[in-house]
Every structure is written in structure tokens, then in C-alpha cells.
Amino acid sequence: MKLSALTKVAAIGGLAALTLTSCAANESGTATPTDGGSASSLSGELVGAGASSQGSAQEAWVAGFQTTHADVTINYDPTGSGAGRETFQQGASAFAGSDRAFKAEEITAGPFEACAPDTGIVEFPAYISPIALIFNVEGVDSLQLDAPTVAKIFSGAITTWNDPAIAAQNEGVTLPDTNITAVHRSDESGTTGNFTDYLAEAAPSDWTVGSIESWPTEFGGEGAQGTSGVVEAVTNGVGTIGYADASRAGDLGTVEIKVGDEYVAYSPEAAAAIVDASPLEDGRTDHDLAIKLDRTSTEAGVYPIVLVSYLIGCESYADPANSELVKEYFTYIVSEEGQQVAADAAGSAPISSDLRDKITPAIAAIS
């Protein structure tokens, strides 16, 4: 799939004319249905935008979807969560990917131009992944850190790698006196929101600015655009540390996070475990499945710095052509096949059957 830039559209009626295009679709020719049945009669064009964390998964989802829907073209632009939500609200995309759900007050304020008047939105977790703390320190491949230490590193209270707070948790590791360069997202980011939400919940005395999507300038550090920008800055720097979707960690050093009395490495299984152990937020509609993550859980095997990335659409669309396309695409994404495709391509954690049972009625409500 080619991830190209979106052209924003002023008129809602223009959505049907937009292309959500895929190189995978164009190059594959006539697709062969995976179930051996006749080819799909579904056709049309969709535009989606949002979380860069979903980029690899969206590529895989589009390719898989088009094996049975060859006449549907899809273009997902990974502009970032904040931009994706804004694009969706403005009616320039039919759906959004976001590393957080809309806040209740944002939904109340509206408007959502792609949606039919007096209808709500549908949002649900579609992509679950740990957020890895990645670092580049010569001679060090892995570290163990607790939440207060992480908070102090990213707030600038700890400035060198051989600081006693780091050394005490990493006996036997030779830590240099190199200065720490903490790399953060320069754009508004749901990944930042999830990371700072962990810090605010697990280390409130050391991280006092709360859960925020825009990095506080008073903390300094180095800003980088998007997930790829953070990974590049950490990779090319000296004494750097940053946060990014774990699927992008590559060969960089990574941090095990203290949970209870143990240190837990990131994994899809550990990320899925904390989502299943967390409740839905109160005060939401039946089709708004926002998870209230328990960042302070001490359960064994739980990794607390997790990104839960949502898909967001309309309960009813102003342009009826979008309804069937979005419904079918969302259905594929949350299916066992769709979730496994994403796991294979991006290292994400497939949603559980219990969560799927909650999501299915929300997608079915799209009209």
C-alpha cells in the first residue's frame, strides 16, 4: 500500500470521490477470494488518516482486504493521531486512526462533518502494541528502570547515564558518564499521550504535567517528527533515549519496566494482558469503546506502557457510500484473520475474543 498525503476536502459530498488507494491493490490485478467463493461486488474509494503507529498494520490490512474486495481502493495517511482526528472531524476522511479515543468533551463539542446530523461516532481498539523505551548507549543492550526513574530522565531531572538511580537497578552493567539526550515527539501524538499517561499514573510525584499529547517545552530534550523521526534520532544520536511503538525498536537497546517486584520486557502478550485487565471508561455510548488502562497494575506479566490505537468512524454517514465500505473494512480489521495479519506485519497483539465480542455490535451499528 502506498501511504500518500491526503488532499483535504471541504465538502462532505466529495468523500465518495476521494481515493483511499493502495499500490497493493493496483499491482495485484484481479484478486482471488481467500474463501474460494465468488469475487466481492463491493466497490468504491475510502480515505483514512491518523496514527503513524498503525502504518504497517494498515498496509497489511489493505492488502488482505483487497484479496476479496479488488474493486475497493484505500488510502491511509499516517499523519499522526491529532491530525487524523482533526481530518476526520473536518469531513476530509471517512475514518481515523488514533492512539487515544476522543475525549468525552471533544465528542460533545463536535462537529463531525463526515457523519449524518444528530448521529454519534463509533470508536474501538483495533491495534494494541507495547510502547518500547529505546536507547542508544555504547556497550549497553538492555536496562531495567522503574517509573520514577523514567519520569526523571524525560523531565530532565536525571542527566547522565551513570546516575545512581539508574545504576542501582542495573547491577553489573557498565554505565558511561555520557549525557542523556531524551528524544520526544515534536508533533501532537497519541504515542506521547499514552507514554505520559503511564508516567502520570505510575510516577505522579516525578511527572507532574499529567497525560499530554504535546511535549512540555520546559523539559527540553530533542524533538522529532513522527515515530520514524524518533527512531532515527535515537539511532543516529549518542546517549539517546526515546519512546516508540515497539514494532519499530529494531536493534536498539530496550528497557524492562518495573511492575510490582519484577521487571517486565515488552511483548505483544504483555500488552494484550493489561488491556484485558482494564475496564471500559464510564459515561460512553454503547458504540464508543474507550478503554481505561490500569497503568499501575502489579499483575505478573503485565507491561504497562501500552499503546491502544483506535479506529473511529460514524454511526451514520452523510455520504451513504462510505457506510458499507467502512463497515466491511472495520469488520475485516477486527476479525481473527485481520488481527493476525497485523500481528505478523507489525508485531501487534491480537485483540481477545472477549474484546471482539464487544466491538462487533458497534461496527454492525454503522449505517
UniProtKB/TrEMBL annotation:
<dbReference type="InterPro" id="IPR024370">
    <property type="entry name" value="PBP_domain"/>
</dbReference>
<dbReference type="GO" id="GO:0042301">
    <property type="term" value="F:phosphate ion binding"/>
</dbReference>
<comment type="similarity">
    <text>Belongs to the PstS family.</text>
</comment>
<dbReference type="GO" id="GO:0043190">
    <property type="term" value="C:ATP-binding cassette (ABC) transporter complex"/>
</dbReference>
<keyword id="KW-0732">Signal</keyword>
<keyword id="KW-0592">Phosphate transport</keyword>
<dbReference type="Pfam" id="PF12849">
    <property type="entry name" value="PBP_like_2"/>
</dbReference>
<keyword id="KW-0813">Transport</keyword>
<dbReference type="GO" id="GO:0035435">
    <property type="term" value="P:phosphate ion transmembrane transport"/>
</dbReference>
<protein>
    <recommendedName>
        <fullName>Phosphate-binding protein</fullName>
    </recommendedName>
</protein>
<dbReference type="InterPro" id="IPR005673">
    <property type="entry name" value="ABC_phos-bd_PstS"/>
</dbReference>
<dbReference type="InterPro" id="IPR050962">
    <property type="entry name" value="Phosphate-bind_PstS"/>
</dbReference>
<feature type="domain" description="PBP">
    <location>
        <begin position="41"/>
        <end position="337"/>
    </location>
</feature>
<feature type="signal peptide">
    <location>
        <begin position="1"/>
        <end position="24"/>
    </location>
</feature>
